[in-house]
Description:
By secondary structure, the chain is mainly alpha-helical. It is 78% helix and 1% strand. The chain has 21 helices and two strands. It has helices at residues 2-9, 12-28, 32-35, 37-43, 52-63, 71-82, 89-98, 101-127, 140-147, 151-185, 189-204, 207-236, 241-253, 260-282, 288-292, 301-330, 342-354, 356-389, 396-416, 420-443, 445-448, and strands at 129-130, 136-137. Strands 1-2 form a two-stranded antiparallel sheet. A hairpin with a 5-residue loop joins strand 1 and strand 2. 54% of the residues are buried. The model is unreliable at 54-65 and 255-269 (pLDDT under 50).
Amino acid sequence: MIHKINEIVWGPWLLFAFLAVGFYYSFSGRFFQIRKFWYWMGQTVGSLGGGQDNEETVRREQAGEKKKVSQFQSACTALAATIGTGNIVGVATALTAGGPGAIFWMWVSAVIGMMTAYSETVLGLKYRYKNKQDQWVCGPMVYLDKGLHMPVLGILYAFFCVMASLGMGSMVQANSLADTAGYSLGMPGLVCGALVTILVFLVIRGGISKISLVAEKLMPVSAGIYFIFSMIIIFSYYQQIPQMIAGILRSAFDMSAVFGGTAGYCINKSLQYGISRGVFSNEAGLGTLAVLHGAAEDTTPKKQGMWAMFEVFFDTVVICTLTAFVILLATGGRPEAADVDGAALTAYCFSIKMGAAGEYFVAFSMIVFAFATIIAWYYMGKQAVSYLTERVPKSREIGEKIYMLLYLNAVFLGCLARLETVWEFSDIWNGLLAVPNLIGLMLLRKQVGALDN
């Protein structure tokens, strides 16, 4: 039953909705994400060299002011949520099931999704507000309520967000982490579960400031290491790169490879797996980026929206592409022939050139990426709980404590359980999460404003 529901939720209608919203904002912005590539890159990562964030942090500490979340910390937290198992497991599964052409459609979903991510982040910052505890409340539930004046949709989104955080954000990530630690390091599930749960608790009890600080230290280093080692593997196959690119394009478009309806079916599989795994990886359209960027201070909706564009670009066009290229080059463009899937396929492909070190490297990357995703998704769920409980007097604090307990239990159980069914169950909540957000993005499209000044 869960499998059938999952097929309905993630059917062609939802993929079309993602593309339709992304295409609308891309056309209305005259493909700003491509046309002004160097501009938004300069406004985001290109603006980090001046050390302004550090100077501002020192000034506030000297003045005894409350620590604030910087633009870069907010971006790192969002990257922590998006760069997870989807970049290793999701890409491997997409290539095995959908063929080499799946990565092409992941690129398409990323380019289109960049504008979706920009729009939802802009709306999130426009309608965010501070609660009685002087904390930002931000996300689709807020702009669906305050902007669209449809609190029912806001409540639905918040509920779906809580359920998605307990599934995809905690149990699924913890399960992938524990499987990797058990397979590569021989760590028992019980030990791994206890250790990860304690580490998660130590981070999340400090709130968004601690989560952002950990993400700021963790993500640049781990993503940088993954980039370097992937490039080493890719350049070791440099003679096969043109052939690989041709294979990707042929798989994505070539109708003459097979006959009749089979061709359309194969191409449809590449498109379906490419787009769905792209969304799973970068989360553009789910509204989660709007939640994660809500705590950023000393910024503007447009500036933070460009940070969201960068995150989708970096997550899918950079990190997912590196994983796909390593797999396709190592398997000669036939990942299904390796007779393994998921993280094991990626580890196998790295080990061909790097031996056991390659396997340990993929294990390290999986563990770091999954842990970062777990702590970032906790903040998203907590924001949704804050929104749901603020209407009931004295219930917010109790609700947040109950949610923390449920979340930590989900992390621990995720390290122990076999979660094939929970994967699909979590996919359902992710798909439902997108529905009210995509409705809000279209109905509030005039509130996003023009990109070019």
